[in-house]
Design brief:
The protein has 160 residues and is an all-alpha fold. It contains nine helices and no strands. It has helices at 2-11, 29-41, 45-57, 64-73, 78-90, 97-109, 113-126, 134-146, 150-159. α8 runs antiparallel to α9. The longest helix has 14 residues, at 113-126.
Length: 160
C-alpha cells in the first residue's frame, strides 16, 4: 500500500499533491504518514517537507509522528529540522523523545551545539529528574562530542 501511495504521489503534479484515493475523497493522516515515511526513506526530504506543509494548509490533524518522520527526512538540513521542531509547538504538539533526538542529531551534523544545549535545557525541564529520554540524551551527547565540548558532555551525563 505504501508503494502505491508513493507511486501516485510521485506521478502527481506540484499542484495536485493528494491523488491517493480513487474515490475522490481526501486521504487521512495515516495515508499521509505512509507517504511521508516512504519519501524520507527514499531521501526525498524536500517532497516530504512540502507534503507536511500541504497537510498543514489542508488543516489536517497532524501528529508528532508526522513531524518526526519529516524531521528525520530533513536530518541533513538542520535549518529545516529545527523549523519543523519549532512548528510542533505552534500546532500544539508536545515533542517526544524521538523528536528531541532527531533534532539533536540534525543540529549536531550542522555543528550547531549551542542550539542543542538550549533544547537540552528545554527537554530536561519537561521530564522528571531521572526520567529523561535516553535516546534524546545520547543524540545530544553525540552532538557535544562532535563539537569537542567535553564539559557539556560530562555535565549532561551527570544529569542522567
Amino acid at each position: 500500500r505504501s508503494l502505491d501511495l508513493l507511486s501516485a504521489y510521485c506521478r502527481s503534479t506540484p499542484t495536485n499533491l493528494h491523488p491517493f484515493r480513487s474515490d475522490g475523497g481526501f486521504p487521512d493522516v495515516f495515508a499521509y504518514s505512509e507517504v511521508l515515511s516512504a519519501l524520507g526513506q527514499s531521501k526525498q526530504w524536500h517532497r516530504s517537507f512540502a507534503l507536511l506543509q500541504e497537510m498543514r494548509a489542508r488543516q489536517l490533524q497532524m501528529d508528532t509522528v508526522c513531524f518526526n518522520i519529516t524531521m528525520h527526512a530533513c536530518s541533513g538540513h538542520w535549518e529545516r529540522a529545527l523549523l519543523l521542531f519549532n512548528t510542533m509547538g505552534q500546532c500544539e504538539l508536545r515533542p517526544s523523545a524521538v523528536s528531541y533526538g532527531t533534532v539533536f542529531t540534525s543540529l549536531g551534523r550542522g555543528h550547531r551545539w549551542m542550539q542543542v544545549l538550549s533544547l537540552v535545557e528545554d527537554m530536561l525541564g519537561r521530564w522528571a529528574p531521572g526520567a529523561e529520554p535516553t535516546v534524546a540524551c545520547n543524540a545530544a551527547l553525540s552532538a557535544f562530542q562532535a563539537a569537542h565540548v567535553w564539559e557539556l558532555t560530562l555535565e549532561l551525563m551527570r544529569s542522567e
